[in-house]
Amino acid sequence: MLDLALQLGDWLAEGREAAVATVVSVGGSAPRGPGATLAVDGKGAVIGSVSGGCVEASVYDLCAQALETGGSVLERFGYSDEDAFAVGLTCGGVLDVLVTPLTADGPVGALLRSALDTAARGGAVALVRVVRGPDALLGSALLVHADGSHEGGLGGHPELDRTAVEQALAALDAGRTATVEVSQDGSHCPGGLTLLVETRVPPPRMIVFGAVDFAAALVRAGKFLGYQVTVCDARPVFTTPERFPEADEVVVDWPHRYLRGTPTDGRTVVCVLTHDAKFDVPLLEVALRLPVAFVGAMGSRRTHADRDRRLREIGLDDHELARLRSPIGLDLGGRTPEETALSIVAEIVASRRGGTGLPLTGSVRPIHHRHTA
C-alpha cells in the first residue's frame, strides 16, 4: 500500500473512498513482488499495478466488489493450462492478492495519513497488516516508526503487536517489504497468521567519486533507479552543480575524508571513477571496511592489479578485497559515458537482485527469482 501512499493520501484528503489490492505473496515467476499495489476509487479511477497486466482486470473487479460489500478478501491468481484465456499468470507464477476497502475515516486511512506525514518529514515508517488468518483479523494494521513507537493494532493481541513491531524494525533496517508467519499470540509459528510488512524509507544513496564525464551519465542512471545521488571530488574546478545538475548533492572534499564522515548503510552504493591512486587507495581502504551494499572502481585491468597491490600493502585482507567490483560494470561492450553508466548500474542491479548478468536467452534460471543481498 505504501508504494501508492501519496496518491492514496490525496484521495483520502478529498474524501474519496477506495479499495486497495496488495500483492502479499508470490510463487514461481511473477512480474511484481510483495507490496505491489493497485487501487480503485468509487468512481472507477485506478492507480498502480499488481502484475504485468495479466490479472489487472480481475483485481479491478474485486476492488469494485470490496467497495460495495465493505469487506476484505484474499484471492489467489495462477496459471491456467485448461484455458489460455482464463484469468491467470501466463508466465507460470502465482500471486496472492489482498483486497481491502479504504475509507477516509477508517482505521487504515488514519494510519496511512500518519505514514504520509512521516514520509513528508523524510522519516522511515512501516505498515504491518494481517494478510492471512481469521476473518476478524484480516486487514487489521499496525504502523511502526523508526524509533519503535507504533499506532493501531492487530486485533487487540499485545504479543502479536510486539512481534509485529520487531519484524517492522528489522524490515526498516533493511529497507525491504516481506511477509512473516506468526501465531496469534505472536510467536513464530508457520501455519498461523501471515503478516505483510511494508516499508517506506528514504531512498538508498549512490555516492559517485570522481567529477569526470562518466559521472554525469552515472548520476542520471542512478536517479532513474531511485537513488539519492552524491558526486564528490577534491577538485573544485570540476566539482560544480552546473556540471552535475541532476545530482542531489555535489561535494568538494577529499573522497576518503568525505566517505568516513557521511552517513551510509547496507543499501549504499559506492562508485569510484577517479582511477587515480592518490584518491582511490585511501578511499577504497575506507569503503571496503564499511557495511555498504556495493563498492566498485573504474580502471583497466592493469590499474586494478596496481590498485590491488597497494591496498594489500596498507593491510586489506582477501575477504575485504573480495568485496571490490573492479573493473566496475558488466561486459556490454560499451564505450560512451552513457553505455558505461548502463554497464555499471546493470552490475549494481545484478548484485542487489542476485542476477548473473548473462542473457536470458538460453538460461534455465527463473526470470523472476528471490534473492537476499
TrEMBL record:
Domain of life: Bacteria
UniProt domain XdhC- CoxI: residue ranges: 11-78, 120-182
Spans traversing the lipid bilayer: none
Cited PANTHER family: ALDEHYDE OXIDOREDUCTASE MOLYBDENUM COFACTOR ASSEMBLY PROTEIN (PTHR30388), MOLYBDENUM COFACTOR INSERTION CHAPERONE PAOD (PTHR30388:SF4)
This protein's name: Xanthine dehydrogenase accessory factor
XdhC Rossmann domain mapped to chain residues: 206-348
Family matches, as Pfam families: XdhC_C (PF13478), XdhC_CoxI (PF02625)
